[in-house]
Amino acid sequence: MSEQVKSLVKSMAVLEFLSHHPDGVALHEIAQKTGINKTSAYRMLTTFEALGYVAQHSASKNYRLTLKLLHIGHSALSSDVLATTRPKLNELVKDLNETINFISREGDKIVFRDKLEPQYSPFRTRTFVGMYSEMYCTAAGKVFLAFSTREDQENYWQRNAGLIQKLTENTITDKERFLQELETIRTQGYALDNEENEAGISCTAVPIFDRSGSPAYAVSISTLTPRLRNAGPDNFAKRIKQTTEKIEQELFKQ
């Protein structure tokens, strides 16, 4: 392998490492965890920063990926996964006349990969494609945690205990209650955000499982709380699951 190719491989290792740290990470940790010496890691990061793929926080000096990489990744996703999911999600939008989100997990965050809104809707959510959100206060985030291991759940809470806060009166901030909530979600097969992230807005989310049985993606419905109560979260979840099962079949079971 030539030196140029080796350098490229190391550069990609840095980008992949950063992808697991959406809130940013220090230079010394990047060098330590990737096995790349600090000087070389710094050169790579400054090059990526100059190209617009990496940004450095002015106060902490931590490095993080920018949305420029997301645009490239979203193009790849659009040509593959979204080609499968978009038609089915469109059917769901037409059927329920609600906002539909297609979501993945990145580290301790969820990322909105796609969002479809009905033509005529009484409201518009503030989310957008490429947006990161916390897991503890969102239906999709709780879905990913509920179907992970207990170790992952415990580690997530430990890493994020400092940022978990009351966003609304319904936000769950007690660890034991949160873990019980995850058990309920695992049993019933779907998660509910009962105005835990934003007052007046509720969400229902169902996982999309890969071949190993782990949640690869999630599909959620965002709606006004009275509309969810009138329709019934169980009914919403049942309809979403019909869609997620079709997506699973095409993406992972062919």
Automatic annotation (TrEMBL):
Residues 68-253 form the IclR-ED domain. Residues 118-222 form the Ig-like domain. GO terms for biological process: negative regulation of DNA-templated transcription. InterPro entries: GAF-like_dom_sf, HTH_MetabolicPath_Reg, Ig-like_dom, Tscrpt_reg_IclR_C, Tscrpt_reg_IclR_N, WH-like_DNA-bd_sf, WH_DNA-bd_sf. This is HTH-type transcriptional regulator YiaJ. Keywords: DNA-binding, Transcription, Transcription regulation. GO terms for molecular function: DNA binding; DNA-binding transcription factor activity. Gene3D superfamilies: 3.30.450.40, Winged helix-like DNA-binding domain superfamily/Winged helix DNA-binding domain (1.10.10.10). Residues 5-67 form the HTH iclR-type domain. The keyword Manganese does not apply. It comes from the Bacteria.
